[in-house]
Amino acid sequence: MSTTINKGVIRAINIAVGSIATVAALSQLTYLLVDFNVFAQTFFAIPLAALGVLLEFRVPAQLHKFASFYFSFLGRGLLYILLGIMVCHGGAFKMLSALLLVLAGISFCLFQFLPMVEEPDYFKLGNASLTVGDDEFDDDDEVI
After folding, report:
1. Distance from the Cα of residue 109 to its chain's centroid
2. Burial of 144 (0-12, 13-18, 19+ CB in 10 A)
3. Residue 75 domain boundaries
4. Is 71 helix (H, G, I), strand (E, B) or coil?
5. Membrane spanning segments where (predicted)?
6. Buried (b) or exposed (e) across 36-52, using 16+ Cβ within 10 A?
7. Rounded distance, CA 25 to CA 74, Å?
8. How many folded domains does the chain comprise?
9. 67 falls in which pLDDT band (50, 70, 90)?
10. I want to staple 45 with a disulfide (CB 3.0 to 4.6 A). Which of 25, 65, 78, 98 is the partner?
């Protein structure tokens, strides 16, 4: 008997992780006078985390082309680990947030290799097939 993790659970995890990362990054804006490097990391962490939440509701037009790591479990997992490292500076809230982000990132990296986890629909690029050897045209057909 095999159990599967459905798309709704993955969606809830993505929204929760993106929200936690966004709030933790916003709280680092106070580091302007204390540690400029941490403050500067905030300007990278906020858009990366907020875009992860946005993808659960709407997929921007050219995102598959320019940020394809958002559309695989391995890419999302590595992104969550990176965000965990970027927001780990400071108090207990940020350390707990970083721990949750890293654990979610490790889980998503494992999801890439587990067949019981369903991919969300927006991971697939339109009607195009991303598998090797599944061409749209046969070798005999001419492309005009």
Report:
1. 11
2. exposed
3. 7-123
4. helix
5. 12-32, 38-57, 69-92, 98-117
6. eebbebbeebbebbbbb
7. 22
8. 1
9. confident
10. 25
Tokens describing residue 76? 């999302």
Nearest to 18 by CA among 26, 29, 28: 26
Give just the sign of the alpha carbon dihedral 93, 96, 100, 101.
Answer: positive
Prediction pTM value: 0.80
**More confidently predicted of 20 and 114:** 20
Q: Is the residue at 131 inside a domain?
A: no
Task: In whole angstroms, give the CA distance from residue 122 to residue 111.
Answer: 16
DSSP string, 2-30: ---B-HHHHHHHHHHHHHHHHHHHHHGGG
Give domain status of residue 132, yes or no: no
Alpha helices in 29-91 (DSSP H): 36-54, 63-66, 73-86
Say if CB 32 and CB 98 are below 8 A apart.
no
**Does residue 129 form part of some domain?**
no
The answer as to whether 65 is a domain residue is: yes
